[in-house]
Amino acid sequence: MKVNTYRIKEDNGLERTTPDQAAKGLSDATSCLWIDIEQPSVDGLKDLLAPLDLHPLVFDNCLEPAASPLLAPYNKCLFVRMPIQQSWDRPDIGFLCIIGLSNAIVTVHASPAPSLEKLADGLKRWRKRDTARFQAP
């Protein structure tokens, strides 16, 4: 299981953290985190997300091998499962699970997701000054 953890900074950029720092941040309502999990194992996923006290169906849906798209609210979170295509020359389609919480986003996928890696790289370079071009006059 590969885990990447980030703190979403006030300027909307990303700062890499350790899984231990992220676990501590989950209990802090003022922190904002992104936890990306690739090739989760049943026990590994449950251990990592145990502090979130998620509905059991969230775990089941993340690990379901014959998945289909899904949007479902569960207690404290919004669960989204959507198809992703790894590359245009591959016919197989994987699924990306997104768990939206009040202070964290958790993404779970069975195989590498290059688009998420590109997104993370871009957000690591993001600066507050970059938002000025997107603001209304």
Task: Write up this protein.
The chain is α+β, with helices and mostly antiparallel strands. The chain has four helices and seven strands, in the order ββαβααββββα. The protein has helices at 19-26, 42-49, 56-63, 114-124; strands at 2-8, 14-17, 33-38, 70-74, 77-85, 93-100, 104-109. Strands 2-1-3-7-6-5-4 form a seven-stranded mixed sheet. Strand 5 (77-85) and strand 6 form a beta hairpin.
Short characterization:
This protein has 137 residues and is of the alpha+beta class. Helices cover 26% and strands 33% of the residues.
Order of helices and strands: EEHEHHEEEEH
The percentage of residues in β strands lies in 25-35%
Q: What is the share of helical residues? A: 25-40%
The shape is: globular
Strand order of the largest sheet: 2-1-3-7-6-5-4
Structural class: alpha+beta
**Head-to-tail CA distance between termini:** 46 Å
Strands, total number: 7
Low-confidence stretches: 133-137
The major β-sheet equals: 7 strands, mixed
> What's the average pLDDT?
83
Q: How many distinct helices? A: 4
| Computed CA radius of gyration, to the nearest angstrom | 16 Å
SSE blueprint and pairings:
Layout lengths: L1 E7 L5 E4 L1 H8 L6 E6 L3 H8 L6 H8 L6 E5 L2 E9 L7 E8 L3 E6 L4 H11 L13
Parallel strand pairs: 3-7
Antiparallel strand pairs: 1-2, 1-3, 4-5, 5-6, 6-7
